[in-house]
Amino acid sequence: MNELLIAIEDFLKTTGIAQMFSSSSDTAWWQYLIMYVIIGTLFYLAIVKKYEPLLLMPIAFGMLLANLPGAELIHLEYFFDEYYLENGIIATEELVNGHVPMSRMIEEVINNGGLVDILYLGVKLGVYPSLIFLGVGAMTDFSPLISNPKSLLMGAGAQLGVFVAFFAALFLGFTPAEAGAIGIIGGADGPTAILVTKELAPQLLGAIAIAAYSYMALIPIIQPPFMRLLTTEKERTIKMTNLRPVSKLEKVLFPIVVTFIVCLIVPAAAPLVGFLMLGNLFNVSGVADRLSKTAQNELINIVTICLGVSVGATANAQNFLKLETLYIIALGLCAFCVSTCGGLITGKIMCKLTGGKINPLIGSAGVSAVPMAARVSQDVGREYDPSNFLLMHAMGPNVAGVIGSAVAAGVFLSFFG
Amino acid sequence: MFGIEDFTKKIVDFQNFDPSQLSDALLFGGAILLIGMLTVFSVLIILWLCLTLFKLCFSKKTKSEKANSSVSEVQIQQAQSKSDDKEIVAVIAAAIAAAESETDGLKFRVVSFRRK
């Protein structure tokens, strides 16, 4: 009987509930509680409000898995040098360029890691963001941009928030590498933010990914006030002329030329821009339908699940509940707002220079976030003139923003990577 | 006097950047802001020029393609319109028949129909 009671007691000690309230635990029970409230909010946004559900749902579930005491699905320490040095697993002289060799980390994950550790390798090795970009490229129609190349300028102007947030993050005491990772939230591009953060500030990955995707989901709420503030009613009702038709040859040359130019100037942007353009080439060439369909559907869906869960799992209570997270959320919002303003101001300048041929509302779509930002331009434009169709015109700056944010990411990676 | 060499060295040697020094933060942050925006604008302006070249090189072809496609579109539309008319009449007749079955005794007269 006594042995049975001991067995029951031992079993109860292994439960998550016991570990949650255990005094030896690194995380207090109230910290778990706060995390569950945050996770619940993300589930609410994804399922009830339908804000970016394809990403927010796996991210929220990954967070839930990471915050279940005892489940041990992820061991973030395996991905940081300190674990290997403090536990004497690796000697200082074995470090390569001051870091633990990736092969040693992979070995540790395979030998001792949990399921999510293995999935997280795709983030650590930078595989998922590039594969997501492959799918995005296959799904994106660059014709509006080829037809109206001036819109590239609005995509460039809308990167202002990235660098302003970087500037502000330095003042809040973040290191330059961390500031770069925080600034890239303003690019409104999840995979880009993840790629830069895993390279420059992996310890901030959870907070930055959650901030980036949450703000992308909230674009219809964040952008319109700035669009109204920075444009006049007359400007909002400008009707733009039809876009010229684009030949197949132009569509095929575009991804090759963009890859060539961007990767020669900013080689660090190659993993993103290269795969974005490869996906697009699959689609426009017309000779690789199977590859294009796979990139657009099965591949991007599988990678989205792996990326979402593993990124969400990095946000455990210990990592996430810090003052830094609040700063990141505030700076991310600042980056989004300034990027929106940057795009709108560039749009206004172009409106003046072209004698009122460009509706500045399409400038806000330069913040990437395809196609949500372009839809917002369309919706705000139709509020003031229901017969005005800005969607295709806004797609130009929108896809230019994807290229622009990849270039901005390349700048940070070149400096601090 | 703070020269251009010191300036460049400070930017490149970011490891020695001291965030607690306001002047360092201002200088370093401002420089990256400037360099970053210039790089993004430069790359996208080069792309703009390339796409403008695309337009110049392929505009003739596009025009002829457009002319061809508009001719073929007209032909297709003309060919379709005859069969479409019959289909439209059938659809309207079916709709009237369905309405009549629900409202006994009511008569309908189609005044006109217009393609949108």
Write out key terms for the chains shown.
heterodimer; A: 417 residues; mainly alpha; 23 helices; 71% helix; 0% strand; globular; B: 116 residues; 78% helix; elongated
Description:
The complex is a heterodimer of chains A (417) and B (116). Chain A is mostly helical. In chain A, 71% of the residues lie in helices and 0% in strands. Chain A has a domain at 133-416. Chain A has helices at 2-14, 16-21, 29-48, 53-66, 81-86, 102-112, 115-124, 127-139, 143-147, 151-157, 160-171, 176-183, 190-200, 205-217, 219-230, 233-236, 248-265, 270-285, 289-312, 317-320, 323-353, 372-384, 391-416. Chain B is mainly alpha-helical and 116 residues long. Chain B has one domain (4-102). Helix content of chain B is 78%, strand content 0%. Chain B contains 2 helices and no strands. Chain B has helices at 4-12, 22-102. The chains are: A mainly alpha (417), B mainly alpha (116). The interface between A and B is large, with 45 and 34 residues.
End-to-end span of chain B in angstroms? Answer: 74 Å
Largest chain interface and its two residue counts? Answer: A-B, 45 and 34 residues
The coarse silhouette of chain A is globular
Count the strands of chain A? 0
Mean pLDDT of chain A, to the nearest integer, reads 92
Strand content of chain A: under 5%
Largest sheet of chain A: none
Helical residues, percent of chain B: over 70%
